[in-house]
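Why show two proteins at once? Because comparison is the fastest way to build intuition. When a single record is shown, students tend to memorize it. When two are placed side by side, the eye starts asking what differs. So, the first record is below.
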Amino acid sequence: MPPLQHRSARLLLSVVLVLMLLGLAPAPLHAASSDPLEQRLVQWPAWSLPAPLPRPGNHDLNYPAWFEGTWQVSSHDLSGHQADISYTVRFQRNDQGAVVGDRAFNASAIGRALLGDRLLSVQNDPLNPNRQLALLAGDQQLESTVVGRRTSATSGDTFLSDELALQVLHGPGDPRVSRVETLSRYQQLNPGQIAAEQWQGSYASPAEGLKARSRSSWQGTLILERLPN
């Protein structure tokens, strides 16, 4: 996949999308752990589908209360595909009182840091918090839908999430379909700082089979610094 399409395929991850993560070493993880996400992390980069990720339905990704607010993010790509970037993200309470990412705002911030003017806009699906549409230059549209998700909190200040997104890039010619899985491990260092790591694997279209092995992998780190309200 050409570089622009490869970066676009990673654009709309939930925080969330979405978010790339930390330079601190994570706590040791063991394959014997009963936590499915810790087991999944031990397996990276040799991931395969199906993954232990239930379908999310119309439920958004809920974060711990210590995520609430606006943050300046410093992101470092450990895979060496792109330069370090900085952007702003925010997390807020929804109508049910849960803390969720402002997906369109966050995806736009990350996308513009990566793609500049080639990202035109990002729109949320008003009927499904797990679906977004990004309009790109060159008459392209990237449709991203989270089709699998699992979260776990290993302690009061550590939070893991894993999302599998189905991504369809529309444009001249036939649509290009892929699946991207992103596992994130966040740690609250103090009330004003969060550090995290993110691991990612990409898979071929479901049309080539629901079972698949990861065809490429990526790893990144980030630091979130809380901004004044």
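Second record. Ask yourself what differs from the first in the token line.
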Amino acid sequence: MRINTQSNHLSTKDEVEAVISQIRELIITRQLEPGDKLPSERALSQKFGVSRNQLRLAIQKLEFYGLVQKFPKSGTFVSKIGVDAINLMISNILHLQAPDFKSLVETRLILETKAIKLAAIRRTETQLYQIEKAHEAYIEKSLKGENAVDEDLLFHLKVSEGSCNSVINSLMLIITPEIITNFVSNKICDPVNYTTLVNEHQNIVNAIKNKDPEEATASLKTHFKDLYTYCNTKLNTTPM
């Protein structure tokens, strides 16, 4: 969820990008070499004139893109890649635009289609149990006529975990909440009763339980029919 924290000062996003720029400067000027350990949080926050929280957010972003690496009890180190490559990658990171909603939806479809296929092949009994429990929680909330958005989100994330692919799961964790928070305002899907959604979830559960990747993929496509239509028309792409 995005929270507007604008004030007379720079936004948190701007401050984080400023920290990233200053870390890049340390690397470019060879004050930090590839493989070097970063100074302590206290030292860097004082040097850059930022809070430790802002510094952590900046380092987390660099870690996500593989530009720094954290080692328990050892600290954070600059990745062992060339300075020119680091400079180029950080420049690209700083120029990344916030993804538009349509692109997020398309990315989710690509990721979750692969995730559910893998889940039907690789899921463990424990993961299947967690998927079923998430489905039951969704049913319970729906039958009461209550908003079950959180339970729907949890169900799809548990399916993603069943893929046993940590990268797909991490990407799903990043983009899916953003999609959920934009769902109502963008009015992508037509109104549908909860019974239909519950049945579609159940078909997904059954396919994963039966270890049938083709049926799992087909069930997901039925469940996401409005999203597929949205991507294939609004994005002017070939059918997915």
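One difference worth noting in the second protein: Strands lie at 68-71, 75-78.
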